[in-house]
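Task: complex structure prediction.
Instruction: return structure tokens for all chains below.
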Amino acid sequence: MKLKKILFAAVSAGAMMLAAPSFAATELSVQRFFGACDADFGTNTDATKAVGECGIITSLINKFNADNPDVHVNVTTVEWPGYDQLTAQFASGDAPDIVTIHESVLSDYQSKGLLMPLDDLLKSVGVTPDAFTDAARNGATKDGKIYGLPIDSWTMLYHVNMDLFKQAGLVNADGTPIFPKSPEELLAQAEQFKQKTGKPYFVQNLTNETALYTRNLYTYLFQQDSDFFADPKHVKLNTPEAKKVVEMYKAIFEKGYTTKDLDYGGSINAFLAGEGGVHLNGTWVVGDYNAQSETKGTALNKGGYAVYPYPQLFGGAHAQYADGHTWAVSQKDRTPEQIAAIGKFLKFFADNDFEWSRTGHLPAYKAVITSDAFKALPHRNTISAVADLGRPLPSAVQRQFAIQDIIGEEMSAAISGQKDVDTALADMESRVNELLANI
Amino acid sequence: MADRLAMSPTATLAVGVRAPTADIYAPQWRNVIFVAPFLFFFTTLLLFPLLWGMWLSFHKADTFSSGNFVGLGNYARLYHDKVFLQSIWNTFYFVLLTVPTLALIGLFLALCLNRRTRTAAVLRTLFFSSSVLSVTIVTLIWRIVFIPNVGLLSTIYGWFGATAPAFISDPSLAMVGIAIATIWWCIGLPMMLFLSALQQIPQDIYEAAALDNANRWQTLRSITLPSIKRTFILVIIIQIVLQFQLFGQAWLMTRGGPNNLTKPIVLYIYDTAFRRWDLGLGAAASEILFILILVAAMAQYLVTRSRGDQA
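Output:
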């Protein structure tokens, strides 16, 4: 009888010990975009060995889970940008704990009281806003409080196939590419490129796309000092400045200086296959493209890959459109353990921002952007300028993704010749204002 | 209280004595219990959302708050919204492209495969197999076909040194591209309906026609087609109701572009209500779609009924 009791006690204790870790782990639900790549990086915990946005973020979260047995992060990957799902999740009271949100979108959710202010939580884990770069801090601050942990600043770039640029004679004596300084020069260089290489100057994803068009417009409106969002509730887009930009892209389209009919994936394949000189894409592909250029036999390996901010085509401010990614936390009742776990997660990403900056995004932390390790990464000497050039829309402008869709649709119609430029600009302006008037 | 309890058995007994045969068909309140489960789900899942949608359409509401009463304001906004008017036209254009084609190809396939051979059986299965796929898979397949440079169509055109038509991005072809994918996806059901109708035509009529030396064309026109007239109308009704609700294919293949030329009403509703958070406007657009489908279904119902009476 005594033996039986001892045995029973031992078995119970053993079972408790086995079960304890899984009971104690605090569950966190994390929702993100950046793609799925579990086949390649599903079990990798060494972020230094990962490449690209998806690879690095997957590996970082794996590492966080491995380092913190008391916290378990469940990741849901959504298709970019995932805001339709997120809105539905918020509406049904089933939002994830931590979620990727663009700085340009934070105010949509923050203004409805759906996000948790992070100032105190970040302070408790030793992350203070003065560690952020100015761009990151401004982007993540709404009504004087931090509503997302910034992880980067990003913008669109000129990704260059140097082999084709050499063939086109568009290379300086020091080996750097020659870029235009005005819209006229851009068209002339694109013509020269087409003549010499037989290929279009630009590789653009013009199909199923709105973001690219809109970001291009914003950049060149900034460069003309057009204060189109002087009033965050009322846009002015039917202007001579906007017309200049749309007409420039229309000429590029009509004269065959760009690829046509490609969607996003198609445009990446086309650029990697050497089908055009300049790919207009974001900071997020720098790491991937650089890896390609180091692989023998690829189009980018032939003559090299270079990447630069958009050239200054107009006489106004030196600026280009920029945004940033953040980790935002949904507003919910939580236990102190859950809040502490969220703090750990955010601190982990703040500490590992260098790994994330290997994607090509600019770091959100002063210590990283000024570090030698960051400066030593390929192409950072040319793209770091974006830290000063980058400019978002005024943070009081709401529904920026919906506005992006409207502007993109109308620009696409004007550039491809389905609408004349004046009608498209008038429609664009009235549609955006109608949207803003009804928020 | 105690008195009443004591009284009641006597009262029941008295009623029982006076009316020994109770009418079991008489309306009784407790019968509500039998329909209650249905009524509960009907009210909560159908009636309440329907009425709430109507209520929302008269309000300026977003996803997280219901705002002020605006009367017919949302409907006035829709009336002046070029994109909404375009989306109504797109939906009708899509129905026009797909429904007759589905009916005719379905009929043609059914006529060809209405045999007892093994090849016909295999082909019937093959033609029906696309119907079991989800919209995501269907659009994925057709995007791979249509995608420029590396797609199947481009490869085939490439063999002849030609450029493939841009079914996803060309303004005049985008809707046709979506229609092709939809027809490929939906062809199974009309074919099966026609097959079952064909197999119900009595063989002796065909024998009589053969004795009268009727040729194939005469047999088809005078016997087969009149015999399956009702099925033809059924196929048309089913397909109109189905294709009016186009959403997945347009969203996944073209995102409604280029220039909103492939944006159907449902996608417009999704865009306004869930992507722009303009729930009131989205609800108003839903009411318009509701009325359109109602009118189409009623018109079809009336047409079928009068034809049925004549027959």
